[in-house]
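Quick note —
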Amino acid sequence: MSQTDNPFEADFSGEAILEFGDADFIILKPGAFVRCAVTGDPIALTDLRYWSVDDQEAYRDSIIATRRWAEINGERGQ
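Predicted structure written out below.
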């Protein structure tokens, strides 16, 4: 059976839609990845570690998350 023949696998391809919580997230629309709010890079759900609960945005890494926080909060990024 190929991946396209398995409806379960098809549900987890493409871009997901998530609701971000303090320590985890809820999958609203199944998918394999989300996009970084700053760079637009795809982030596999298994690699997703950084997001903003307040802004409901995902970030590729800690550097981008910190810069985005500074941008939103009116402080200069490094």
